[in-house]
Design goal:
The chain has one helix and three strands. It is of the alpha+beta class. The protein is elongated and about 50 Å long.
Length: about 80
Amino acid sequence: MSGSLHLTILFDEDDDGWIVASVPQVPGAHSQGKTRDEARENVLDALAGLLDLRAAAYERTGRPIASESLDLVVRAA
């Protein structure tokens, strides 16, 4: 079985000229940078941090039967 996860990074320019980046599919995944590349790098770092925090806070409700690793690969469009 294979699958993919499609996320979108939105870029906006604020009133001070900073580029604000967000991932609308992941609440709280926001950052900024002086350039689009810097904003992309920063929001990807924020996304990784959010996923780490959410994984650490996850409470299991059932009896574990197996585990599987998942690597999320991000590619520039």
